[in-house]
Every structure is written in structure tokens, then in C-alpha cells.
């Protein structure tokens, strides 16, 4: 499918154009951009800014009705009818607020709100309304609905930024239904194409694609697909922490400084068909037995290298009670805080997989689908979030990828973490308290206002 590695933060430039289709004039970052972020104070507009926590909380729970049966949680897979309901709701909300609204070819929704100077590329707030299977109500929706709350509150309070703002609902960030993940932001960042995203196959191996399913729900639009077509000045995202650093520190929010390395692999083992009862053990070419050893090796690898690993998908055939398994596909991911450790895990497991396949006489197709080295968000964007959090926050790091992991390759990007009970995520037990969600949305709004102020210092 996709064999790529991306070098993050390769084009750290701020665009100065804000129209839907234009050639970005990438002004090099000047030292002026650094001028204000030594201060711990918030921008004047940020000091007075407030959000409506009741409204945010109600919307998080109201929109959770659009889900496959998922007691207490959320199963809103990308491009399903449930996803369509959530998207339609989002569209209606932003249109009611006067947004210039577009949907692009990968289904991502953009809602642009004017600032005082329409020649500046908008400051973005974004995350995803679609979810994993058997997920929680917060992973994704909090980022989009938190951004919506910021826009609503700004309107009510007459807060006008100089830069336009854009609220984004990115498509298929989780890769829960279609692989690969970051399904739309990866195209926006120029790491993939619309055609590749449309061809993304569903993880249930039914052969359906993201493109066909998006078309079915009416979400293949003509809006901008790439940064070149629609540049932004910065990207800010609220997300549940998915870890326990904030909880341990007794803080509701955090500024996210960076992420750990992540590598996704997929492999296919092909052996030989045969009768499950009558074939002698010696000489079998059983793909599932090879896969079983590989799965065990992937787990042991994490302990050996002091990293983490997860086997995320397996499919084997032929189906039946009397067949030796002749074809098995496995997907897994490897995580490590250090780039060297991440690479060492990769080369170690590749060697082991080849050895296991050879031992069982299996043909092997092995792909490193996505390689994300560990990295840091942009200091000036982190600082905007840090000042927004004030003494209610601490610095933290994320263990996974987000749409911000893609936008950070283009423009100043940072994230706001919200305390998550016991660090649980991708589970119906995922929970963040109402007050913590409110603090998160407030920090998001203040961070955006801080960044807007920071850009004013640029000539
Ligand atoms: Zn997420």
C-alpha cells in the first residue's frame, strides 16, 4: 500500500495567503516571530476570553448518539451513516455561525471564519469526529467540538482575530476502518495523494475503499486537498491525554511537546493448502503457525528494546474447519521514544520475520507502511499553549499520532492535552471530567489568540 517515511518539520514556513486556492507564498520564519514568546503572559484578548463548558459538554454527549451500539462509548467509524450524521451536524453548526464552508475530496470539512485581515492564512483548530471501534466519546470529538465552542464563544464575546480562523474535521485519523491512518491530513501534508487515500482498503478485508464509502455518504467534495491549495498559518488541537502524566500531577490540561516514534508494518504469509486432519505434521506450510510465531516475536521485541508494540489485525484463510491455513495477513505497530530504538526494533523484527517465514517454507510479503520518527512540535506554538494553560497545565508528550503530526510538517503546530481518567483511551471507559474539557477548550482558544498576537509582531 504505502511505503513511505516522512521527514517532519522539513518546511517550517508560514504562509501568508488565505484564499481557498492559491499559491502559498512561504515567507521564511523571521526572528520577529520569536519576540513575544519569552513572556509568560497571554495576549490581551486571551486574558478575558471564556468558554461555555455546559454547551461543550452537552454537545459531546449529544453527538455521541451517532454511533453503532457501543454502551457508554462511541463507535463512529469513518464514512458510515453515523459519521454522516455527525458531519451533517457539524456542517449545520458552522453554517449557523456564518462559516465559509467546504468539504474536500477526502471528506474533510473546513469552516473558515473571517478575521480582520483576509490576506493572512487562517489559524486552524482541528481534530476528528470519527472514532475507533469500541472507542470513547472524547478521542477526536473533543478536539472538533472544543474548537466549535471556541468559535461560538469568540462570536458571543465579540473577539475578533486578525488572522481568519478555520475549524477542521479531519477524515479517518484513526485508520480504524481504512488503512492507512491520518487518511486526510496525510494528503494535506503532501505525504499521500487523493487517489491513494480513496484507494485505502477497509481493515475487514471486504475490499471496500474509503473513496467509495465517502461517496456513498455524500462526502467527496471539491474543497482544497493540500496545503498548497489552502495554506494555514498554524494548527492547534485538543485531545485527551491517553496517558496519566496530568492525572499524576493533578493538572486538568497540558501542553504537548512532542511525540514518540511509530512504525506500522503489514505482512502476508503464503503457504500451501491441505487437509487439516490427514496431512502429516512434517512438511506442512502453515501460514497461521508462522504468523503465530511472528506475533509472539512482536510482543517480545518491545520488552527487549524497551519500547512498545501491538499487533492490530490478523486475517487468515481459507475459512473452514478442515483446512490448513495457507494465507495469513498481519498488521502491527512498533513504538519507541528514541529514533535509534525505533530503528533497532524495526531491523530486529524484519530479520526475525524473514527467519520464521523461511523456517515454515512460507512466501513473505513485508511492508513498512508508515514510519514516523519521534519529534517535537514547534516551540512558538507550544509556547502559545503553555501560556494558555498557565499554572493549570504541565508539559507532556504524546505516545501516538494525530492530525497535528501531519500539520507540524508544514506550519507551527501544538496540542492541548486534557486529563483522561486512568489514561484510558480507545475504550468505552475513556473519560474526562466536564471541568477538564472546559479547561481544554479555554486553553485552545487562548492558544489561538496568543498565536494571532504573535503573528502581529511579524512584518
Ligand atoms: Zn484521536
Automatic annotation (TrEMBL):
One of its GO terms (molecular function) is hydrolase activity, acting on carbon-nitrogen (but not peptide) bonds, in linear amidines. Signal peptide: none annotated. InterPro entries: Amidase_Cbmase (IPR010158), Bact_exopeptidase_dim_dom (IPR036264), Peptidase_M20 (IPR002933). Belongs to the peptidase M20A family. It holds the Pfam family Peptidase_M20. It comes from Melanomma pulvis-pyrius CBS 109.77. NCBIfam families: hydantase. This is N-carbamoyl-L-amino-acid hydrolase. Keywords: Hydrolase.
Amino acid at each position: 500500500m504505502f511505503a513511505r517515511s516522512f521527514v517532519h518539520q522539513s518546511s517550517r514556513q508560514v504562509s501568508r495567503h488565505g484564499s481557498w486556492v492559491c499559491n502559498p507564498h512561504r515567507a521564511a520564519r523571521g526572528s520577529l516571530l520569536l519576540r513575544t514568546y519569552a513572556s509568560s503572559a497571554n495576549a490581551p484578548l486571551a486574558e478575558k476570553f471564556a468558554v461555555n463548558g455546559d454547551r461543550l459538554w452537552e454537545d459531546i454527549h449529544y453527538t455521541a448518539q451517532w454511533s453503532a451500539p457501543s454502551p457508554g462509548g462511541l463507535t463512529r467509524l469513518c464514512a458510515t451513516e453515523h459519521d454522516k450524521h455527525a458531519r451533517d451536524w457539524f456542517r449545520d453548526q458552522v453554517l449557523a455561525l456564518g462559516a465559509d464552508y467546504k468539504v474536500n475530496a477526502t471528506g474533510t470539512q473546513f469552516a473558515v471564519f473571517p478575521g480582520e485581515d483576509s490576506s493572512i492564512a487562517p489559524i486552524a483548530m482541528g481534530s476528528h469526529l470519527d472514532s475507533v471501534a469500541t472507542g470513547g466519546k472524547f478521542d477526536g470529538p473533543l478536539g472538533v467540538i472544543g474548537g466549535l465552542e471556541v468559535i461560538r464563544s469568540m462570536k458571543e464575546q465579540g473577539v475578533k482575530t486578525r488572522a481568519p480562523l478555520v475549524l477542521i474535521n479531519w477524515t479517518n485519523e484513526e485508520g480504524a476502518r481504512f488503512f492507512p491512518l491520518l487518511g486526510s491530513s496525510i494528503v494535506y501534508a503532501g505525504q499521500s495523494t487523493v487517489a491513494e487515500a480513496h484507494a485505502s482498503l477497509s481493515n475487514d478485508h471486504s475490499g471496500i475503499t474509503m473513496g467509495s464509502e465517502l461517496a456513498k455518504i455524500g462526502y467527496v467534495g471539491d474543497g482544497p486537498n493540500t496545503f498548497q491549495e489552502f495554506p494555514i498559518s498554524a494548527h492547534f488541537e485538543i485531545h485527551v491525554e491517553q496517558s496519566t502524566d496530568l492525572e499524576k500531577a493533578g493538572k486538568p490540561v497540558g501542553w504537548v511537546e512532542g511525540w514518540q516514534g511509530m512504525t506500522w508494518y503489514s505482512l502476508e504469509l503464503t503457504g500451501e493448502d491441505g487437509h487439516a486432519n490427514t496431512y502429516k505434521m512434517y512438511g506442512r506450510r502453515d501460514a497461521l503457525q508462522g504468523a503465530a510465531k511472528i506475533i509472539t516475536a512482536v510482543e517480545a521485541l518491545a520488552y527487549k528494546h524497551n519500547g512498545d508494540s501491538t499487533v492490530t489485525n490478523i486475517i487468515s484463510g481459507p475459512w473452514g474447519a478442515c483446512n490448513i491455513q495457507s494465507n495469513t495477513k498481519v498488521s502491527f505497530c512498533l513504538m519507541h521514544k528514541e529514533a535509534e530504538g525505533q530503528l533497532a526494533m524495526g531491523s530486529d523484527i524484519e530479520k526475525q520475520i524473514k527467519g520464521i517465514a523461511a523456517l515454515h517454507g512460507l512466501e513473505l510479503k513485508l511492508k513498512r507502511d508508515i514510519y514516523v520518527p519521534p519529534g517535537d512540535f514547534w516551540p512558538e506554538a507550544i509556547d502559545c499553549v503553555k501560556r494558555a494553560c498557565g499554572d493549570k497545565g504541565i508539559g507532556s508528550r504524546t505516545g501516538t499520532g494525530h492530525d497535528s503530526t501531519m500539520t507540524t510538517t508544514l506550519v507551527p503546530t501544538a496540542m492541548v492535552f486534557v486529563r483522561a481518567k486512568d489514561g484510558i483511551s480507545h475504550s468505552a471507559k475513556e473519560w474526562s471530567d466536564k471541568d477538564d474539557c472546559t479547561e481544554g477548550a479555554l486553553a485552545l482558544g487562548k492558544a489561538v489568540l496568543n498565536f494571532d498576537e504573535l503573528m502581529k509582531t511579524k512584518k
